Amino acid sequence: MAEHLIRQAVPDDISILCDLDQIARSSSDRRDFIQDAVQNSRAWVVEICDRIIGYGVISHQGCFTLLLEKIGWFY
User: Fold this and answer.
1) pLDDT in tens, 17-64
2) Rg (Cα) of the chain, in Å, rounded?
3) Within a 10 A sphere around the Cβ of 13, how many other Cβ atoms?
4) How far apart are CA 64 and CA 44, in angstroms?
5) Where are the alpha helices (H) located in the chain, listed in sequence order?
6) Are 6 and 43 in contact (CB under 8 A)?
7) pTM of the entire predicted model
8) 48/32 Cα distance (integer angstroms)
9) Which of 2, 17, 21, 33 has the most other CB atoms within 10 Å of its CB?
C-alpha cells in the first residue's frame, strides 16, 4: 500500500488545490475560499506518493469539511 500523508497546506499548494477542486476551476469565490483557508492555516492536504490527492478545510464552527477530488490512484 502506498504511503499517505496529511499535512497543513502551504501557499505553494494553492494552485494545485484549485486545479483539483472542480468548483474552483470556474468559481473565483471558491479560489478565494481556498486561498483564505491556506493563508489562515485552516487547510490540510492529503498526499499519496508525494502527490496531493485532496484537501480539507477546518470551518469556523470547528467542523472538518472534507473536499476530496478523485484524480486517480497512484499505487
Assistant:
1) 999 888 999 999 999 999 999 999 989 998 988 899 888 888 766 555
2) 12
3) 20
4) 10
5) 14-20, 28-39
6) no
7) 0.77
8) 25
9) 17
Binned at pLDDT 50, 70 and 90, residue 14 comes out as: very high
d(CA 40, CA 4): 24
d(CA 9, CA 47): 11
Q: Which residue has the cell 483564505?
A: 36
**Grid coordinates given for 66:** 472534507
**Chain center to CA of 49:** 16
d(CA 75, CA 54): 16
Phi then psi for residue 34, to 5 deg, are -65, -45
Give the whole-angstrom CA distance, residue 24 versus residue 73.
22
